[in-house]
Design brief:
heterodimer; A: mainly beta; six-stranded mixed beta sheet; five-stranded antiparallel beta sheet; 11 strands; 57% strand; B: mainly beta; seven-stranded mixed beta sheet; 56% strand
């Protein structure tokens, strides 16, 4: 059974700081890993999708890495802004038939102006 | 244009009632999902449909019945609502189950009183 853990559960940083969010998973037989952002009262927005053959993906100030062998992924946010405040979730499809997405419980990020 | 849209956004109803949540996607995806987010913000898959066929049913009470009239629509009908059904229900879609980016709707907030 796949379990996804995100640390820390909450993080508060001053504007301009670089920060790292962590995600770990127990079953390394994954097709990919996705990072999502959820704003209060809103749905999830996909930020980055890393395929199992990739080591990292970048989009603007975001960089996500994947280390399948150790069951870890990190989301690096450069030069954080108050608008980055949200809950960040990572999710992996279960291996084999890739039939479902298992989510972590999220990291609630607050960037202080 | 909204990619994944679900209605209603908010729903307050009494125990024992029957209610439906509708979902439509205009992305041309083959696969649609229903996820439930509980009070602790944990997201868990309920159902997955691929080309109108049920693929995943994750230990969901049979009071919950999904219906897919075509591959662009996946509705969720709930019978005999219970207090514990109060949650946010998210519809989502993707090209292939668990292999591609998943797009989420904005959620339907269900409160059972």
């Amino acid at each position: 059974k796949q379990e996804v853990t995100q640390i820390p559960a909450a993080l508060s940083v001053p504007e301009g700081e670089n920060l790292v969010l962590n995600c770990s998973f127990t079953d390394s037989a994954i097709y990919n890993l996705q990072w999502f952002r959820q704003d209060p009262g809103k749905g999830l927005t996909s930020l980055l999708l890393i395929q199992s053959s990739q080591r990292e993906q970048t989009s603007g100030r975001l960089n996500a890495s994947l280390d399948k062998s150790s069951g870890r992924s990190t989301l690096y946010i450069a030069a954080s802004q108050p608008g980055d405040s949200a809950t960040y979730l990572c999710a992996v499809p279960l291996g084999g038939s890739a039939r479902q997405l298992t989510f972590g419980s999220g990291t609630q990020l607050t960037v202080l102006p | 244009d909204t990619a994944v849209s679900q209605t209603p956004k908010y729903l307050v109803t009494q125990m024992g009632n029957d209610k439906s949540i509708k979902c439509e996607q205009n992305l041309g995806h083959d696969t649609m999902y229903w996820y439930k987010q509980d009070s602790k913000k944990f997201l868990k898959i309920m159902f997955s449909y691929n080309n109108k066929e049920l693929i995943i049913n994750e230990t969901v009470p049979n009071r919950f019945s999904p219906k897919s009239p075509d591959k662009a629509h996946l509705n969720l009908h709930i019978n005999s609502l219970e207090l514990g059904d109060s949650a946010v229900y998210f519809c989502a879609s993707s090209h292939q189950q668990g292999r591609d980016t998943i797009y989420f709707g904005e959620g339907s907030w269900l409160t059972v009183v």
